[in-house]
Amino acid sequence: MGALLVLVITALACSLVGVFLVLRNLAMVSDAISHTVLLGIVAGYFVSHDLDSPLLFIGAALFGVLTVYAIEALVKKFRLKNDAATGLVFPLFFAIAIIIISKFARNVHLDIDIVLSGEVVFASLNTLTIFGLTLPRSFVEMSVVFLLNLLFVVFFYQKLKISTFDAQYAASIGIAVSFLHFILMTLVSTTTVVAFNAVGSILVISFLVAPVLSAYLLAKRLYAMILLSMIYGTINSVVGYMIAIELNMSMPGMCATVAFITFMFTFIFYPNGLIGKQVRRYQLRKLYQINLLVLYLPVTQVFKAIDLSEKLEWSESQTEKLLDKLMKKNYVERAESGFYLTSDGQAYKNQMKLENH
After folding, report:
1. In the prediction, which pLDDT does 100 show?
2. For the chain, which ranges sit under pLDDT 50?
3. pLDDT value for 45
């Protein structure tokens, strides 16, 4: 259960700041930060020569923020697109970290594979006792990060909302946009550093982006998007954990896979998704056919389905089905020799003619 607690609290902490990353079109920056902080860890180790030193955390957080500002500098200075600038900064910092580790820290326990993929199942082995409760250290650390992220979002909610959707207007009314952005990216870096020690950088990226994108499809308000992203993150963690236990597979990998699956299900089945669009197209096509049929109906005489099908070049069965729908709407009544238009049908037909003109 220790691993599940770590997964859930990590998903909640990442979802809180991930919402603003996605809305500010900085989703790929999370990928860059989750990798470039490794250089900060390496730098902190070479200064302290201690894997438990707080300098590793400080260095990682600083390099996370440095990554953001390096990307922004390239965008402003050379007018590059954000993804292009990310593609320059991210590989550079990460490659330097890999080179340093492979060249100068071969005998140091800095496992590159664990940093990338993580192994949250070992979280229960490193514990702390708080108020008589024995909890995984990663859970306690991520709980602190979650509270920091929550306090930041709650206290600066309105300012974050305005600056996220209209930074120029926010600056014009006195909101410290740059300061808020700096604090946000510092929290993103901190969250990433603390999280990937247990779950790995790949799952951190998934937790920062996937639940938020799923919530983005459903929510119309910012607070609803935040709550939904936290719910999605929790579901992804629980389902991924259960499947990984059942199939004896990697928990971070399975959680990331479940996050993608839940996003795809949301994309397919939400009201404006693939199925929803097909349903609306079908409904609009039927409405068009019914309206067209009404325009062809004679006002004063009895008509037969076969005559209408010949005029419209439809099958007789299709025409009869549409006439049945018109009968249910009380626009058409059946007579002995065919059908005739009711007064409601005549009024609807006149309305159609006016709209067409």
Report:
1. 85
2. 113-114
3. 80
54 alpha-carbon distance from chain centroid = 32
**Residue in the block written with tokens 């929550």:** 150
Residues sharing a CB contact under 8 Å with residue 93, sequence separation 6 or more, in sequence order = 32, 35, 36, 38, 39, 63, 67
Going by DSSP bridges, is the β-strand pair 332-335/338-341 parallel, antiparallel, or unpaired?
antiparallel
pLDDT of residue 33: 84
Q: How many CB atoms are closer than 10 A to CB 306? A: 12
* Among 34, 60, 32, 30, residue whose Cα is nearest residue 45: 60
- In this prediction, residue 161 carries a pLDDT of 94
Phi, psi of 127 (to 5 degrees): -120, 165
User: What gap in Å lies between CA 237 and CA 256, rounded to an integer?
Assistant: 9
The Cα–Cα gap between 228 and 216 comes to: 9
The half-sphere exposure of 90 on its side-chain side, counting CA atoms within 13 A, is 14
HSE, side-chain direction, 13 A CA sphere, residue 148:
18
- Looking at 1.10.3470.10, 1.10.3720.10, 1.25.40.10, 3.40.50.1370, the CATH number of the domain 2-270 comes to 1.10.3470.10
- What pLDDT does 134 receive? 82
Q: Where are the beta strands (DSSP E) in the chain?
A: 127-130, 133-136, 332-335, 338-341
Domain locations along the chain? 2-270, 277-356
Q: Three-class SS string for 227-283?
A: HHHHHHHHHHHHHHHHHHHHHCCCHHHHHHHHHHHHHHHHHHHCCCCHHHHHHHHHH
Given this model, what pLDDT does residue 356 score?
A: 65
Q: Which helix (H) or strand (E) holds 352?
A: helix 343-356
pLDDT, residue 269, reads 86
Specify the pLDDT at position 275. Answer: 82
Closest CA to 8 of 237, 254, 205, 214: 237
Q: Which fold has domain 277-356?
A: Arc Repressor Mutant, subunit A (1.10.10)
